[in-house]
Amino acid sequence: MNIHHHEPQGHGHAHHHHHAHGRVNPEIARSRDGVRAVSVSLAVLATAAAAQTAVFVASGSVALLADVIHNFGDALTALPLGVAFFLRSARGERMAGVAVVLAIAVSACVALYETVERLIHPEHLTHLGLLGVAGLIGFAGNELAARYRLRAGHRLKSAALVADGRHARADGLVSLGVVASAGLVALGARLADPLIGLALTALILHITWQSWRTVSSGTV
To answer: Is the model's pTM score more than 0.85?
Structure first.
């Protein structure tokens, strides 16, 4: 007589899968997110700065020059930060934060020099309509980059990225200063351009101090 023993099959193994394939190492995910945030904001700022440069060449506005210098500097500070995220280096991220602060400080010095030069040797501004448009381009580009960086910086707990985001947001206000400069010069106030350039330099120095506090404390 044949006795068949039916062993339960195919039931035990289903409970031993851990589904690891659906997970990503948190450090790798943070690295990818950081690189993405830096890359997108870099592209936005570089595009805005390039458009503004063309208008500066045509108009000769020192207020716009301060804005252009700042936007290019803002775009370049993304490079060491992007490398730090790519390498998943906490030390590199801190160093990138310091680089952000140094870039802001250097741009303040350059803007101050150009402003003093224009006060001593005033020049007649042209293409005021284009100048106003350039300022609006700068504001839009910086605000977009700032929102992207700040969101990513808070999400990733990155003091350097938050500092860079605040830097971009303040740069947006600097760009609005360019719009004001174009309007006042159009109304006949020739010294408005270098005076606004001077005010923007003071604002950049204030941003330098705020950014240094954020980066040195390491808190977001």
So the answer is: no
